[in-house]
Specification:
Mean pLDDT: 77
Structural class: alpha+beta
Number of strands: 5
Largest sheet: 5 strands, mixed
Helix content: 55-70%
CATH topology of the largest domain: Alpha-lytic protease prodomain-like
Number of domains: 2
Number of helices: 10
CATH superfamily of the largest domain: Cation efflux protein transmembrane domain
Length: 364
């Protein structure tokens, strides 16, 4: 299990009187956060279970609509619903695994399983789209007979409405609890809603015009939309699995760090911020006066980590302290500095570009 509290590892150097310390901070959750964490996990699992139950019901409704109408467009909607059921079941397993606490073999937790779940769902969506294109192309070349359009329109519309409500619910829960699995599931279900809207319009056109080839054309349009949706989900998941920087998280951390400047915190650089599922992992280098003692620099790193950790709620914060090398005198407000070479000119806001710049570029 991860150690609670803050631990610092001294990094000796021969190039300066003080080379800095590296503080690995596992900020303990507040009582309110700790109390709500289990309930948050239960809420996400319940949302996934609700998604599975609704997906099964809507699958039966859509296949009944296809049985009545023989429409390729309705069949395409039903085929996608099979994907919904499989994806919802996978989401339940993914959320259960992601909610497991960090252990010796997984010191950063199990959150990345959510990226696997999102990639799996995106792949299923793309596969369903290819099946729909195949079936629709066959119907367009060889023709199809459509029956009982009124019943088909009613059932497809009802199923689409159910998907719309479910998708909005999953997106809301997923964004509130930063669950990529639920967000991906919600996006998929909402895409199914818009698919149903398009299908209803297509069936109404067939009903009014009597032109049967409109039906497979609508199915092809649906397949193209699904291919785009699946590709976007896979792209997002791949970014998470490859530890792609989270721009939104970086901007938020930079805003929090801007509050900490002064009384020893001179600048920040080499900021890195990613998410493993809902859990953020953040590292940065804090520039402190070079004449500070190790314990003084340690206290600064603890103070900054505690402040940022309170705002984020949970996560791994790794703050390394670097000496100023007398290069930041203009933005350092330490009044009794014995090595100052330039007068203090005032604090300067930290930009994202400066925050993410590596050490070697800052020094040249």
């Amino acid at each position: 299990m991860p150690t609670r509290g803050r631990h610092c590892r001294i990094a000796p150097s021969t190039v300066a009187p003080f080379a800095g310390i590296q503080c690995l901070v596992h900020e303990p959750k507040s009582a309110s956060v700790a109390a709500h964490a289990p309930s948050d996990e239960r809420l996400k699992r319940r949302a996934a279970i609700a998604s599975l139950c609704v997906a099964i019901v809507l699958l039966l409704v859509k296949f009944q609509a296809y049985r009545l109408t023989g429409s390729m467009a309705v069949l395409s909607d039903a085929l996608e619903s099979i994907v919904n059921v499989v994806a919802a079941a996978f989401a339940i397993a993914g959320l259960w695994f992601a909610g497991m606490p960090a252990d010796r073999n997984h010191p950063y937790g199990h959150g990345k399983i959510e990226f696997f779940a999102a990639a799996f769902e995106g792949g299923l969506i793309a596969f369903a789209a290819l099946l729909i294109l195949w079936e629709a192309g066959h119907a367009l070349l060889h023709g199809s007979v459509i029956r009982e359009l009124d019943a088909g329109i009613l059932l497809t519309g009802a199923a689409g409405l159910g998907n719309g409500l479910l998708g909005l619910f999953l997106m809301r829960v997923g964004k509130r609890h930063r669950s990529l699995t639920l967000i991906a599931d919600g996006q998929h279900v909402l895409s199914d809603f818009w698919t149903s809207v398009g299908l209803v319009i297509g069936l109404v056109l067939v009903r009014l015009t009597g032109i049967p080839w409109i039906d497979p054309l609508v199915a092809m349009a649906v397949a193209i939309v699904l291919l785009v949706t699946g590709a976007k989900l896979v792209r997002t998941a791949a970014g998470g699995l490859l530890d792609e920087q989270d721009p939104e998280l970086v901007e938020r951390v930079v805003g929090l760090l801007n509050r900490e400047f002064g009384q020893g915190v001179i600048r920040v650089h080499h900021l890195r911020a990613i998410r493993a599922g809902r859990v953020p992992h953040i590292s940065a280098h804090l520039v402190v006066p070079e004449h500070f003692r190790v314990d003084e620099a340690h206290d600064i790193a603890e103070r900054v980590a505690a402040s940022v950790g309170r705002e984020l709620g949970e996560g791994d914060l790794d703050f390394h302290t670097d000496p100023c090398f007398r290069s930041y005198c203009k933005v350092c407000d330490i009044a009794d500095c014995a090595v100052r070479q330039q007068p203090f000119a005032g604090k300067k806001a930290l930009s994202v570009e400066e925050a993410v710049t590596p050490d070697d570029l800052m020094l040249h």
